[in-house]
Design goal:
Helix 2 (20-33) packs antiparallel against helix 3, helix 9 (140-152) runs antiparallel to helix 10 (156-169) and helix 12 packs across helix 15. The longest helix has 21 residues, at 194-214. The protein has helices spanning 4-16, 20-33, 38-50, 54-67, 72-84, 88-101, 106-118, 122-135, 140-152, 156-169, 174-184, 194-214, 219-228, 250-253, 267-276, 287-292, 314-323, 357-366; strands spanning 237-242, 257-264, 281-284, 298-303, 324-336, 345-347, 353-355, 369-382, 385-396. It is an alpha/beta fold. 55% of the residues lie in helices and 17% in strands. Strands 1, 2, 3, 4, 5, 6, 7, 8 and 9 form a nine-stranded mixed β-sheet that branches. Helix 15 links the parallel strand 2 (257-264) and strand 3.
Length: 398
């Protein structure tokens, strides 16, 4: 007959391998023999959380900590679970317990730093994220979060330093590579790496709409309003939502469309667009490749807040010309660079490209478009300042 410790070890192995039914049986067998086994209660609680039973998870882990309050891993896991339940103050207290018990546990410093950042305590957040990196110099997420926080605080030199340290740890990471280019101006690519864009938007998909509401995001309304001014109100168009994201343009474009197609690099964003509804077709893929493979299939292509991840506009304008029928409309937004700037476009420290108006016009004309309008508008508010952007409307010749 197996000992409780052997049964627990097997249950943990089953749990880690995803054999949850076997893990449940193992944890229950241990707890039947010893209802006060702190490790079994801890891992059984984690399994309940994995199954979506958050209240039971807190109950089991809480009982484990009553019996063994010196277990930093249980406190850390409890903090993570409490965060998912929006009990942020309680989560921070749990992570403070971890730090008191195991001050070298980088994950607790990181978790507390991120929570402090989200609560608006930026100075404390910086200190905790720096401690996470100090305790574990290979903790890449700490450098990434520091870079993002320093950017939010307007300390671009510190942001650049954090990103450089991150890239040194992960030289093949597309996000680290992109942000070092953005903050240093060195080795700037003509467009953001597709893997960078995919990772970025997969990560933020679930919070994307909420974040944009806080920024007063206007790009979908601006491009669809402009489209409405140049088409017959009774017309029904085949429309491509190019870089559809979570589908924010969908409800605005649907009344104008006989067929509405969306494409985006991020599968997580496309899932949310599918949940929102209104599209006849949704595809995951590279925007230029998609347009190039669908010649003369659309009357209008809309790219709201998509081309900020392109520096050179040559490929995207040329492939839009492929996808549109003669006389088709191309509407998009880009963030604005002053027209007297030396360069046609620039990768800014926030990781997005900005474009000179004359360069936008030139790119469209060289691809066979007539520029109908190119207006300056406020796209959103970021760091208490209006973000000015260009709203372009062009018609394909022929």
């Amino acid at each position: 007959m197996s000992t409780p410790e052997a049964t627990l070890a097997q249950a943990i192995a089953d749990h880690q391998a995803g054999r949850l039914s076997e893990a449940i049986d193992g944890y229950q067998a241990v707890l039947k023999q010893n209802p006060d086994h702190p490790d079994a209660l801890h891992f059984y609680g984690m399994l309940h959380f994995q199954l979506g039973r958050g209240i039971d998870a807190v109950r089991f882990i809480g009982r484990s900590l009553d019996l063994l309050p010196t277990n930093p891993h249980a406190w850390n896991n409890l903090g993570n679970i409490l965060t998912f339940q929006d009990k942020f103050a309680e989560a921070r207290e749990a992570w403070r317990r971890v730090i008191a018990l195991a001050p070298d546990m980088a994950e607790a410093w990181f978790n507390l730093g991120v929570s402090l950042r989200d609560s608006g305590d930026y100075d404390a957040a910086v200190k905790h994220l720096q401690m996470a990196a100090r305790q574990q110099p290979t903790f890449a997420r700490a450098y990434e979060s520091l870079g993002q926080l320093f950017y939010r605080l307007g300390d671009f030199a510190q942001a650049a330093a954090a990103y450089r340290e991150w890239l040194a740890l992960a030289p093949d990471n597309p996000m680290a590579r992109h942000m070092v280019a953005a903050t240093s101006g060195i080795d700037v690519p003509e467009r953001a790496d597709g893997e960078y864009v995919t990772k970025l938007f997969d990560r933020y998909a679930r919070h994307f709409d909420e974040n944009l509401r806080e920024l007063g995001y206007r790009a979908p309304e601006l491009v669809t309003a402009m489209l409405s001014t140049v088409i017959d109100p009774s017309a029904k168009l085949d429309i491509l939502d190019a870089g559809c994201g979570t589908g924010l343009c969908g409800p605005l474009l649907r009344p104008l469309a006989s067929r509405l197609t969306g494409v985006d690099l991020s599968s997580k964003m496309v899932e949310l667009a599918r949940e929102r509804g209104g599209y006849d077709e949704l595809a995951v893929g590279d925007l230029c490749a998609f347009m190039n493979s669908h010649p003369k299939q659309f009357d209008a292509a809309i790219a709201a807040d998509t081309l900020e991840y392109f520096g050179s506009l040559k490929d995207v304008c040329e492939t839009a010309a492929v996808a549109l029928r003669p006389g088709g409309l191309f509407l998009f937004t880009v963030e604005a660079l002053p027209d007297d700037a030396a360069e046609p476009y620039k990768l800014e420290v926030h990781g997005r490209y900005v474009h000179r108006p004359s360069y936008v016009s030139q790119s469209l004309q060289e691809a066979g478009f007539d520029v109908l309008r190119l207006g300056l508008e406020t796209l959103r508010v970021e760091r208490m300042q209006d973000v000015k952007g260009l709203v372009a409307l062009a018609r394909l010749a022929g």
